[in-house]
User: Fold this.
Amino acid sequence: MTGARVAQWKAEVAGGLLLAAIGGFFLYFGLRLPPPDEPGVPGPGSAPIALGVIIALCGLAVAIGGLRKADRSSLDLGGRKQAIALISLVLATALFEPAGFMLSTFTFLTAGFILLGGASWQRAVPAAALVSGGLWLTFTKLLGVGLPYGLIGEILFR
Amino acid sequence: MTSANFLLNGLWIAVQPKNLLLCFIGCFWGSIVGVLPGLGPLAGMALLLPLTFSLDPTGAIIMLCGIFYGAMYGGSTTSILMRIPGEAASVVTCIDGYEMAKKGRAGAALSIAALGSFVGGVLSVIGLMLVAPRLADAMLAIGPAAEFTILLAALGVSIFAASGPLLKTIAMIALGLVLAMIGLDPLTATPRFTFGSLNLSDGLSFAAMAIGLFGISEILMSFSQTITERPQAPKLREMLPTKQELKDSAMPTVRGSFIGFFFGIVPGVGHIVSTFASYAVEKALSKHPEEFGKGAVAGVAGPETANNATTGAAMIPLLVLGIPAIPVTAVLLSALTIHGVQPGPLMIAQHPEIFWGLIASMLIGNFMLVVLNLPLVGLFVSMLRLPYGFLAPTILLVCIIGVYSIKASGFDLMVMVAFGILGYALRLMSFDIAPLLLAFVLGDRLEVNFRRALTISEGDYGIFLKGPAAQVAVAMVIAVTIGVLILKLRRWKAAA
Assistant:
């Protein structure tokens, strides 16, 4: 399966710069932490500063390496399925607490089975209901794990 | 009490019905995650981590370890039948295992892999039993400086053992260390990188990070692999290897056990290197090296044995030093910590029931797996027929439940997703993410020991080289560095 593609060297440069930015972030905020109490003994900011510098330097080196790369092959970033899985995962986790377990997971599974599994809604809906209900009962009733009820959970199980 | 008495006591603990059941659940689930591409032992363990909260620490570790070595057994099934490694350590088995299957010897290959795994697993547990208590006694005397040097050496070795390019691996380790520093400073309680958030003051959740980096990213990566083949499980009567096949696998199994055990102890090296090393050794020692790649029995027996021998050995740095040699043992460390047990030199003395119970359960579990895996190979193969489009959303959902149930925190879910995306991006760009997780786990102890040692020595860095433990650790780093440089030089010369 092939999806969106980007030149390998561009991905290396972008990844390297992202690392350098992360290093810069920890360096900047590490410098704002209180200085050591005793000279020669590291304080709370010492290690983050040193590590920030290392990450930034490595990131820059990776980016420069990407620019110099003779190999101009391309990198598969993933296709439609990865994008659907990611978007639905983000939505499911964002709605997990506010909408409750049953509603968020039922919607997530139905969408997943249809869009990722290519199932018809007639098959996806009962399968999603079965899996989310089964997981709910297993985790809350059998294992005693606390999951957010939400409206549907309140009606059905409380 | 002698070791034999402790082991008998451990056996008594392990054969309690509850612990036997937990061992069985772990082994069975482990075999499943080992078979299914996209679910390795780490994700499998992380997913069942919440299940262990209601258990006692011994039961919890018995089940989680069962998943660990169960996955190593399960991984060989798809490697042999379909040339698809169920988990990364089974890559080598694909080469000759699949060739044996093409010749109609799939059943024999599965049996040889299972027997080798059993022998390797049992011998490594015996090694663990013999080495760990003695090493723990030696480690009790060390101070913060030596502990820092040993931890640093563990990270240093993992730099060279990582699969990614050197610079990228160093960046991953530094990133893991600095991410471990988010939260309250352990010595002064100064908030670091929390930006006033209460969620961040406890630091990032290890489980959220691990499931995101390995579980979520693995599922995303797996969408790119399409399984078109429909494997047929061999019948039970086809499982018996011939006398010649058993003879051919005997010595590779013995050698694989030693190779696996050695690589299991070295931090950061783990299963993949041990299986490749075993394959290389078998090929070099074989009278018929030309048969390798065409269905050589030794090419299955050696690596599969090494694979499982590594599992028992990897428990030594975890239980004795509190150092997770590989990401999987980092999950075990996390599980033990959640249960209030701190792995380290004192663990064997303070919690003998956990250590010896685990050892005994590993012996039982390895036997269970041989009995389980061969007759049930048809069941495991049928799981591969489940469409991935159905499996993936269900696994993602279990990831969500797993992370949420630890602290009932919506914030941890966001951390999981963020690290899932980060892990996917990093893997696409050939970054090895295992060192990031190892560094994250060790970061806190590294920093605390570093600063404590310098406070004691009033800023004298020479303290890190004092004492035999620190000197051994430094010597180990120097030896590995030289070894790797020689290997790289040879490769460079060969390429030139």
Residues 106-139 of chain B form the longest helix (34 residues). Residues 3-495 of chain B form one domain.
